[in-house]
Structures are given as C-alpha cells and as structure tokens.
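Dig into what follows:

_____
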Amino acid sequence: MNDIRRGDAMLTDWREAAGRFEREVGKAVVGQARPVRLLTIALFARGHVLLEGDVGVGKTTLLRAVARALGGAYERVEGTVDMMPSDLIYHTYLADDGRPRVEPGPVLARAEDLSVFFFNEINRARPQVHSLLLRLVAERSVQASQREWRVPNLQVFADRNRVEREETFELPAAARDRFFMEIGMEAPRDAETRRALVFDPRFHDTDALIGTLDEAVLDHAAIGGVARAIQHGIQASPEIETYVVGLWEALVRPGEAGIRIEGVDTSALIQGGASPRGLAFLVRAARVRAWLEGREWLVPEDIRAVFPEVMAHRVFLEPVYEMRRETIVPELCRAVFDTVAAP
C-alpha cells in the first residue's frame, strides 16, 4: 500500500469504500452526516478523535458503528474516578485455585490487531490515566512487562458529555492537543428524523441496530498506507499555503489582525496553542476532505470544512475568558475567516 500514487485506481477504489463506510455508519445514526464525515476524515488522516455532546445524542452508538464498519479488534473501557493506569494494561483476578493471575488488559490483549480503542466518558478518569493515554495516542505504543508493545493500527476514540461536572477531570492541554479532532454532536433538529428516533423501534435496541451493519467495510490494516498516499497525492498551491498561514496568524494574534469581538480584548485573549502541529493536522484533514470530494488539489472550502473541529480545541484562552470558551472560540473562528481573504 505504501507505493500508491496519485491517480491510482486503487485510491479511487478506496474512495468508493469510504463512501460505503459512511453509508453503513449512517444507518445507525440518522441525522448525523457531518460527524460521520468528520470521523471518516480522521480515519484516513490517522488521527484520534474526542467526541463531545449532550447525554443521549448517540455518541456511543456512533463510535460502535464506526468500530464495526472499520473492522479489526475492538476494545472499550468506561472512565471512572477509581480507574488506575494499570487497568488499561493488566487484568488481575483470583483463579479457581485461589491463586492470583495477571492477564493482558484491554490495550495489550490484542495489541497487533487492535483497531478501535473506545474510552467512554474519558473525563471521569484521573490525570494519571490521561498520561498513559497520551503516550498511546501520540506514539501508538506502550511500555509494559519490560518490553514495548506496538499497536500500529490503533484509532483512539473518546467521548465525554458536557452536562455533568461532578467527579470529573478536565483533560490537560497536552492531551487535548494530541487528539486530531474534537467533534461536537447535537441531537438532529429536523422533525422527520426526530420522529424516527422516538417512534421507530429499530433505534431503541442499540445492540440489534449495530448487529445489522456490515462488518469490516474497510481493511483497517491497510488504511495507514492509503493515508500516506493521500497526503502525498493531494497538492496545495502557493496561494493555499499563504492562506493557511494567514489563518494561523489571525487565530493566534487576533488583536494584531484587527479582529473585534464584543466584550473581549482580543489583544489579550489567547494564552497559547494553535501550534505548528495543529496546522499540520489541519492540512492533513483538508487533504483527506479534498480526496473524498474527488479532487487532487486543495481549495479554501477544504480548510473551512474542518477548521473548527481541528483547531478550536487547540486554542487556549486567558483564564478570564475561559469560562466563555463555548461562545468566544466559535466567534473567533468565524472572525478569522471573515478577516483573512481566501484565494
């Protein structure tokens, strides 16, 4: 797969497979076309995803559908306040003979074939657990039993709800920055979809619903090679490069860019973030989006389509503004696009 070149029929076949993947996942989560597309982009950009939304909007159902359609080994853990880092690595128990036993935990049990690691309610786990997850996300490896375990095909998906704050731990900046995207998920607003979710019995039994989806629509072990081919095959013109750098400058120095937000001193708004790694992730995502749209070059809409989900969680505000993040950051992103002229 590593020698796939731009224009190869193989990449066309993979684009068609990506479309089938989206349609299959969409059977389980109606009215969520944008989150499904963004998750597909993350898969082909080899990026990990943090999903956020209200309780009961279908975050877990969406990630279970993605895991089934992607194929490979699947592991899930539930974040709890008493979870320890070792819980991800080892499983200890008393055997029938009364002696203690140690078995590989969810990360190590099927490491080589582990495709999806789903961390449910990640903000309920302690910072020590986040630290271990940080290495897993950043390097797709972990140290245990005096050896290094590789998980080359791993995609980490985590979710958190934005309602409950009791017994929760906010992810540190370094951990959030390692997530390729942070995708918000809302309940559908059109009446027909809402009616189906409430009255159609097939949406009331999640296990049965997931069981109806085709398995392994994609070859999870080959996606890494396809992802590299996409990044080398989709071109960016000098004008697009200048445009992306201009967006970056306006985002990290909004005051100097002339951006005005009511009730905000934009010259003292940004504490940090939006690093070169974040911009590289932005371009990676935009290239995959262009590929999914059937193009071999980037256009401004590719950048705009993924900008909030890739960049917003990498912008760290001064503490006086952090409590208003949910309103300030989206407005800042809109202002950046209004300020920087597209080619």
Q: What stands out?
A: Residues 19-218 form a domain with the Rossmann fold fold (CATH 3.40.50.300). The chain has two domains: 19-218, 234-339. The longest strand covers residues 114-120.
